[in-house]
Design goal:
446 residues, mainly alpha, Fumarase C, Chain A, domain 2, two-stranded antiparallel sheet, two-stranded antiparallel ribbon, 4 strands, elongated
Length: 446
């Protein structure tokens, strides 16, 4: 088994992280940290903290140099962070000690790494957002097209009352709408720069610290936290929580899809592959299974991140290292889920005949609730329920459909309407259409 399925040559297509996978490579991390060092130098030069000519030289160098991650490996192992080795290598590559001495002025490793992380998380959120909108587009079309298609609703895994396939699809997509609506505020409040120095005091920058931090934030198009957040991991946790809720929403769709293609009455078709190595009749629900697995992984990793957020004093190496090991896998899992769901949603089609068979498979018991409420027009509610329960027992004993027994017992009832699934879906069709309209609006929004 590969150390990470997301960059595995063997499993990479089963758990595709797409462009987000490249954001969490060594090269991408180094590039992000160099961008931060360059932006920091520019902000400090403008504020007069370091000479402007040196700031220009540093920024130019950060855009031009290419550092080998392997060359930084040994020093990173010794120092516990890659920034000292990166700064040393950058200064050496500049070959201008009069300017290079101002690299990393007044910052600490965590400032550079956390700010670089935010640059990459910003891109990851954009990629997941794009895929979620594609998922919503496909679900919107499904819900609109099949708003009136009856199928059994399930509670505790058993048939409950009729619903519509469009409403089932709407239930998959509604959480995605809410998640997308949260994104603007999440970006504003959580995508932040860090510039607090060795112990969170920004002491080396003196009175210029707030102005330099604000300029750094503006230069990188990130937020200015107005404080140190070295040991307050709330920004990271809130982004991680959002990503895990993406996983959970898509995992719910995966769980339902697995249930709806189980042996017997297969009420949906998934499209795509899923071949068994030995059973030629099978088409396994591979993509839905991946979504469920990713949701479970994400929930577990979020718990680890919450534990790591309880940090000692002004810097906690063990907690920080734990974050490094968990957060990338969590982000890649959400990206993989969004990518997988995009393909899955585009391939789902309902099997109307199978749904009709499922509705008719339980001796009309799925309409028992509707019958009991219809009887309340002439009977008190407890008596109506008792009468229907008695008919259900008789139906099971005699294997006679409940509708036929009800027609005999209550000839004045319009049993044709009561036992017609298309007329017993309640507000399900309307909910499906409302979702489709809202999803279309969200997909168009910039």
């Amino acid at each position: 088994m590969a150390g990470s399925v997301f960059d595995s040559q063997l499993y990479g297509d089963l758990f595709p992280a797409g462009d987000v996978g490249r954001l969490f490579s060594d090269s991408a991390e180094i590039r992000a940290m160099l961008l931060v060092e360059g932006a920091l130098a520019k902000a400090q030069g403008a504020a007069g903290v370091i000479p402007e000519i040196s700031a220009a030289a540093i920024q130019r160098a950060t855009m031009e140099v290419a550092l080998d991650p392997g060359a930084l490996r040994k020093a990173t192992g010794q120092n516990g962070v890659p920034v000292p080795a990166l700064v040393t290598a950058l200064r050496s590559e500049m070959n201008a000690p009069e300017h290079a001495q101002y690299v990393h002025w007044g910052a600490t490793s965590q400032d550079i790494m956390d700010t670089g992380l935010m640059l990459r998380l910003r891109q990851a959120l954009a990629a997941v957002e794009s895929d979620l909108k594609a998922v919503l587009g496909a679900l919107s079309a499904l819900a609109r097209t099949h708003a009136e298609l009856p199928m059994p609703a399930r509670t505790y895994g058993q048939h409950a009352t009729p619903t519509s396939f469009g409403a089932v699809v709407a239930a998959w997509g509604a959480p995605l709408i809410a998640l997308l609506e949260e994104l603007p505020a999440l970006r504003t409040s959580c995508l932040l720069v860090s510039l607090s120095g060795a112990a969170g005091t920004a002491g080396a920058l003196g009175q210029n610290a707030p102005a330099v931090r604000a300029a750094l934030a503006e230069g990188l198009s990130l937020g200015d936290p107005g404080r140190s957040w070295h040991t307050d991991r709330s920004p990271v946790l809130r982004i991680a929580d959002w990503l895990v809720r993406v996983n959970i929403a898509l995992g719910k769709m995966g769980e339902d899809c697995i249930a709806l293609v189980q042996t017997g009455i297969q009420e949906i078709r998934l499209g795509g592959a899923g071949a068994s190595s030995t059973m030629p009749q099978k088409q396994n629900p591979v993509a839905p299974s991946a979504l469920v697995a990713l949701a479970r992984q994400g929930a577990g990793l979020l718990s680890i991140l919450h534990g790591a957020a309880m940090q000692q004093h002004q810097r906690d190496g063990a907690s920080w290292f734990t974050e490094w090991m968990s957060l990338p896998q969590l982000v890649l899992g959400a990206a993989s889920a969004a990518s997988t769901a995009k393909a899955l949603a585009a391939g789902i089609t309902p099997n109307a005949e199978a749904m009709a068979t499922a509705l008719n498979s339980g001796l009309d018991m799925i309409h028992a609730e509707a019958l009991s409420f219809a009887l309340t027009e002439t009977l008190p509610r407890p008596e109506a329920q008792a009468a229907v329960k008695k008919l259900c027992l008789e139906a099971n004993a005699s294997q006679t459909p409940l509708g036929a027994l009800a027609a005999q017992e209550f000839p004045d009832l319009d049993t044709g309407a009561l036992f017609d699934p298309a007329r017993q879906m309640g507000h399900a069709p309307a909910e499906a259409l409302r979702f489709a309209e809202k999803a279309a609006e969200v997909c168009k929004a910039e």
